[in-house]
Amino acid sequence: MRFHTRKWVKPEDLNPNSTLFGGRLLAWIDEELALYSIIQLQNPKIVTKHMSEINFRSSAKQGDIVEIGIDVVKFGNSSITLTCQVRNMMTREIIISIDTITMVSLGEDGKPKAHGKTQIEYIKDRLTD
Question: What domain of life is recorded for the organism (predicted)?
Fold first, then answer.
């Protein structure tokens, strides 16, 4: 699992139990998945189509730093399927895991568009001297 982003849990991220609000965490995850997919599929028009069961395993409190990890499961014709895990950097516990998330590449007409990708591309491989 490649961990791409860290978030600092601030007071506005807390629920009434003074722990990280699940909705806030899911928003962070969805944004990170979208950014990752936009870069991989080289298309700014990406939507979340599906998330499998979401398993909350632990939490985080104010001041904790959480890390969002993503791996590619497979490339479809117009989609990319990912897996995600978020961990608490302070306690080293897994906060949430999502086995499969499907992100879809759209064309100008708003319908699924083939992307032609078959494997992960790294930015360093796209840069030329």
Answer: Bacteria
Burial status of residue 23 (CB atoms within 10 A of its CB: 0-12, 13-18, 19 or more): exposed
pTM for the full predicted model: 0.91
**How far is Cα 115 from Cα 55, in angstroms, rounded to an integer?**
30
Distance CA 69, CA 96 (A): 10
Measured CA to CA, the distance from residue 53 to residue 34 in angstroms comes to: 18
Handedness of CA 95, 99, 104, 105 (dihedral sign): positive
Report pLDDT digits (tens) over 33-90: 999 999 999 999 999 999 999 999 999 999 999 999 999 999 999 999 999 999 999 9
CB 70 within 8 A of CB 83: yes
- Tell me how far apart the alpha carbons of residues 3 and 63 are, in angstroms, rounded to a whole number: 19
Contact 77, 104 (CB under 8 A): no
- Amino acid identity of residue 79, one-letter, is S
Quote the mean pLDDT of the chain.
94
Exposure string (b/e) for 97-110, b if CB count within 10 Å is 16 or more? bbeebbbbbeeeee
